[in-house]
Known about the structure:
- The chain is of the alpha/beta class.
- The protein has 2 domains: about 10-165, NAD(P)-binding Rossmann-like Domain (Rossmann fold), CATH 3.40.50.720; about 175-265, N-(1-d-carboxylethyl)-l-norvaline Dehydrogenase, domain 2 (Orthogonal Bundle), CATH 1.10.1040.
- It contains 11 helices and 8 strands.
- The protein has an 8-stranded mixed sheet with strand order 3-2-1-4-5-6-7-8, with helices on both faces.
- Strand 4, helix 4 and strand 5 (about 100) form a beta-alpha-beta unit.
- The protein starts with 9 loop residues before the first strand and ends in an 8-residue tail after the last helix.
- It comes from Pseudonocardia aurantiaca.
Amino acid sequence: MDHSLPPRPVIGVLHPGAMGAAIGSALKPVAGAVIWAAAGRSQSTSKRAELADLVGVPDVAALARRADVIVSICPPHAAREVAEEVAAALADHPRRPLYLDANAVSPATVQGIGEVLGPDRVVDGAVIGPPAWKAGRTVLWLSGAAAKTVAALFAGSPFEAQVLGPGLGAASALKACYAVQSKALPAAWQAIADAATAYGVDEALRRQLARDGVHLDAVVEGVAAKAGAKAWRWAGEMDEAADAMAAVGVPDGFSRAAAAVYRRMAGDGSGNA
């Protein structure tokens, strides 16, 4: 299967939030242009795209029909919808761009995206680390038939690209396992603190934990600081991680509970991330 790209491919980013802007900026040295779809996006998204020096095009359809590579970096619950929007734009068009789904989704979700866009054209991506403006902190794990082609685009960039192999879903499986320890386990502290407060034993719990060298308030404040305004997004990621666990017969309650905790932190009592 031919996964070759033009010497200076056009790369489209859907949509340049903090991570998407960093990815777009990292790809600029190898791209003929890095474009994004401006229609319906917020002022903050527009500002990030401007600061990253990305080129705006009218909408997703225009981006899909121009790009050689599309990077999807969006909230987990929207990943399938974004892929379907791209597929609709390409339905009557000869172009078949490579599609990097860099979202925190389950293997089943990214495999479903492969069914929508063609499994040979979809690359499963998992970003572990912060938006990368300098090297050394962030790894982009990749899997899928065209993973090596996409990895080459990031050579020398602040994102360290690592290829897991040709299996679509491997990168998402790795991210799900990593996310359980990085997001589900910390959420347990918030649940513990909430329960202790509800029972009126929070001060006693603080004293008892202090004997073990654990400062409850500091731990809970650390969880809140890391989640911050992203708590709603972390809830969606925990839903996807839970699906990944359940799919291989591993108990998924850790992630389900973490999703509920992050929804509470985000002030969403509806269960929707």
